[in-house]
């Protein structure tokens, strides 16, 4: 139980005090009424004695009584009615609420920290009122009147006569059989005569003389002169007199009996009392004095046949009791009690009580106890048989004996007042009232045995109850508290006597006693036992009692040594439920709130929902609308496990309450709504117009849209492309203030800066909603909530802007979504737009909408579907307007030490765009853009550029990581119109009809790479778009041709284009804008081209100079006919190089038609020669010579667009591949140069372009596709490919551990490289006829040609002493001898050709290999000699025949 102001040792004596009746004359009542008090009320604050009192017990021992209190009340002849008592108790409880700002106890139990009110004043008020309002009964005498004060005024004509009238009236009330109420302790009641004297108006001498007369008549012990009203009430109340009465009057004690008069038993002194005094009791003012309802005249223990109206407290008028009490309090606050009394008067009243108690009451009690004790002693002396006979004689009117069961059913016997058993009980009660607990206990104990023997269960229970209390209160506690007595008494009252009032009193007393002994568990069990729903004594509402007792049981659980927190919470919930049934809404709400502390956040979701729902309802009933909204909000925002129907009920209730709240302050700020959930961090912001859909052959650039998923890799690629183009525009340097353009902001983008939006371009905010409920939500009139601050960024003063704020709505257009349905447990995004019409700073704060449910047919929880309004497709049952803020937490900072050690978050500014001035806006459309190509296929498409803004744009560029995929044509493209035949055949190439005579010989043309944007130092990825006049005016559109070439690798290719453009007028905030496009191309296999180049053995060309080469080209058709390709025709092979050109085709087969069906291979051989020296000298280093060898009737001009474009692009992508870097050290410089020179001999820069046509059958039509493949030849003898080679992954090797040595990379060139320094060629007759019979020696002249392939001087040694040593060679070729000089030392200048005349001597006929000379070479200026034998060319065979 909760802490009480009084201890149990103070509580019980204060609850059972001697009762004294007061009977006043009308005049005496008038005197006290001047102070707005009755006589009984006048005495109430002074009814406790300030000093100890002594009396003697029957054994003549002195007994001390401490803090004795007496209860004086006006006589009332009608017992208090259950309905009135119930209403009074209800009012007492509802009038006592927790004090504002009361500091609650914080109890820590395990994981719980609970704020619990330590005291429960409402329970104490209830208990005090309950005990005071106990109706007097025949089985006990504790609240029977012991004495009666007869009060008359000194101003009356005959006061003494008035006293005798009052005395007769008291005698009539006590002894008349018609007046069964009130109850009197003993027949000869003490009468105490009080003369009231008005000190301010009355005659004091007369009063004194009357008092003397009274003393003569009644004795000094039996009368008193009380002087009051020492000052007039209308006197200026300059001195503040304390008002000790208000605290007692506000308790509305049932003892203030003025309002319960009865027509049959009228109290003479109270006939003329004012009807307005009725309100003093706190009872309803409407109770009429004359015509009281019947149930106010009923017997105190009679069962109430008519269901009392206040049983239905939970009806519509449940607030009545609380409001009536409130009105009473309000009425009482204006009245000053005791206005005519001075402090001296207070002392006089106090003195009067002392005198009455000392001289009148206590001697009377002492005498009565002695008399009763004497009777008991004499009774004990009698024999048992005689006593039983006496008992039968005394109890002549007793009912005849019955069987045990019958006795129990009727609560046992009823004794007459004179029964000796009752005399013992009277003595016990008297001893108890004067705190003589030892004697009281022994008397109760004796009485208990007698009652039990007689099966008088009601009497026995009463004796048991008081015996237990007496045992507990005995000083020194000689015996333990007999709790079982109380248990038996409660059970008897409840089950046998059906008297819940007495059972409740037992429980209240016993629980307090157990609590004082620390037995909280037993106390709780006792309290709970009385709270069962079935324990309803008809006529007495059990809900209020149960609620209070359950609450006290809950406090018992929390106050245990190891607090039982969950039991506390559970019983608080039960208490709250019963409070609610009893109409005590505030207490119900408080209980639920206390219990919520335990259930909150512990996963008891259904319990939490129940509590919150009840809190919401109770708060709403009490008009605590904010609390109600908050509670319902909690039900909705927690992940509810309720059924859909229940959730629907919760939601409707919430909306209903919310609507009421919003109606109270319609002009107030929009409140925050709890539903649906918004995932703020998933909010995405998109700047710009929505992408246009594809229109026939026109396909808009993909750009960026909210439908695209974020991909970090692709995001990084776009960033690199933008950096690349910005660097080109800014002469190779990225400006320090450059930030990548971000059109779509999300949780992955960098949101630390204020984003830039352009005026007149929409801003789309994608808000991610989630409906956690199982019922659909309907949002209507959904739009963004924003704040806008117009600003002029040009730096002018901002004065005039203040006036613009009034037209703020015109500055920003807001899109409203009329209906937005989110189904049960669905996540859904809403895209909301703003249209800025003015520059400035925009802050998007959140969303605003009406929240409602779609009306269903079900009615849950007693709440029917409310009358709905039809909106669009859905019936909206009820909706409320509110908002939700978008608050996005920025990324956690982790840079500095301080940030790493603490939790700090950076800003996220994606919702705070700066609206800047107008900018151009480009739209790009692709016309006839293919989705599938063959590898290397060339296709012509068109690109349309449209400026949809009001500003001209310029500086249009496109950047891509795959520049080899597309071209807009070089500078020559516009100058060279297409030939008629080309347009007839719809060819993408520039073609020229050729003469049949020129077949197999090369047609030469030249072009500079600068014309195709591949100059020195240029970025091949950044391509300027050739706009006419370089400017695109507002509203203008330009269509440009675009050639595409299918990538060499088969598969799906994503090719990113980034279009860059600027405004003609430079903007301070935005320097440029970009447009993205991702093209997806699927390529299928076509041709594979492989080529090798090797030196020709023939040393002469047209000019007689060395340097011819042979080019072998292998072409394989790898197409598997998936694309419907029938066959490929090789129409032309072209070369492109700065130094070499193809001269002619040396194919041996006469078949000119180069067709390749599926999986066929073709082999071509071409002769390549060096370009003319003068051509190379005069042309710039970027000039390439193109040579075309045609296999058909038309020449494709390979040096024009688009053939040359794609060739250059493939060349530049080849150059981008990492080359092996040469290390340069100064001391090894010369060695490196030598190596480089030797390597250069091995290099060739010849590029082959194979042009082809493919014949495709598609939908029974034949199409001709064109394409080209490139092979870049770098090294003599090394095979090159048109398609990228897959590198085989290296095999797994064992890990080797070794000590690294300082080994420098050997600078020696390889054998292969050295072998190409000098080219050798032997010139001799293939067969030689010699008459061996004439001459035995055959001499054959042989010319050895030596050609220096390098650009440096070379020292050459030719050694003829070499003999073939291998036996196989001897067998095949015979042996011969060189005649003449056997070793030659020569120096060959750069690219010089030298001939040596040699003679070979043969002695037999046969076949001989002349390729035996060994040739050594070294660079002339090198100290280090790199010598190696030159590899011979093919065997030089000569046939010697005999003539």
Ordered list of secondary-structure elements with their pairings:
Blueprint: H1 8-15, E1 19-24, H2 26-33, H3 39-43, E2 53-56, E3 62-65, E4 71-74, H4 82-95, E5 105-109, E6 112-116, H5 121-132, E7 145-153, H6 159-175, E8 190-198, H7 204-218, E9 223-228, H8 246-249, H9 320-333, H10 343-381, H11 384-394, H12 404-409, H13 420-433, H14 437-453, H15 457-473, H16 483-496, H17 500-516, H18 520-529, H19 542-558, H20 565-581, H21 585-599, H22 605-621, H23 625-637, H24 644-664, E10 677-678, E11 684-687, E12 698-700, H25 712-729, E13 744-745, E14 756-758, E15 763-770, E16 777-790, H26 801-804, H27 808-811, E17 812-814, E18 817-822, E19 827-836, E20 840-854, E21 869-871, E22 874-885, H28 897-901, E23 914-916, E24 922-927, E25 932-934, E26 937-947, E27 953-960, E28 966-967, H29 972-975, H30 980-984, E29 991-993, E30 1003-1008, E31 1022-1024, E32 1031-1032, E33 1037-1045, E34 1051-1063, E35 1072-1084, E36 1087-1095, E37 1109-1117, E38 1125-1137, E39 1140-1145, E40 1155-1157, E41 1161-1170, H31 1173-1178, E42 1183-1190, E43 1194-1196, H32 1203-1216, H33 1229-1242, E44 1243-1258, E45 1261-1275, E46 1280-1281, H34 1311-1315, ...
Parallel strand pairs: 1-4, 1-7, 7-8, 8-9, 14-23, 25-35, 48-56
Antiparallel strand pairs: 2-3, 5-6, 10-15, 11-13, 11-15, 12-24, 15-19, 16-18, 16-20, 17-19, 20-22, 20-23, 21-22, 24-26, 26-33, 26-45, 27-31, 27-32, 27-34, 28-33, 29-43, 30-42, 34-35, 36-37, 36-46, 37-41, 38-40, 38-42, 38-44, 39-41, 44-45, 47-49, 49-53, 50-52, 50-55, 51-53, 54-56
